[in-house]
Design brief:
elongated, 2 helices, 30% strand, alpha+beta
Length: 86
């Protein structure tokens, strides 16, 4: 059974206080595709960027399709209730 390959990966970032999400589409180069490992690498890079850019925000990752993901910022009142990571 072959692994699924993706020509593009779509991600939306929903920030608290913003009406519209920030949308990014990552496209594979000519004659290439993203593997599952490549998609995981992209997700890690975006998560690291969000953590560095918005250190006071907590984000949930929501998969909405095989190669489509949403990062949703949790409201501040909920993040105050989330225990610190160990």
């Amino acid at each position: 059974m072959s692994e699924r390959m993706f020509k593009s990966v779509a991600m939306k970032v929903f920030l608290a206080g913003r009406e519209k999400p920030v949308t990014r589409t990552y496209r594979a180069g000519p004659r290439s595709r993203f593997t599952s490992a490549g998609v995981d690498t992209l997700l890690e890079e975006v998560a690291d960027h969000l953590e560095a850019t918005f250190p006071d925000q907590e984000f949930r990752l929501v998969q909405i399709g095989p190669a489509a993901f949403n990062f949703v910022a949790a409201p501040q009142e909920l993040t105050d209730e989330i225990p610190a990571r160990v």
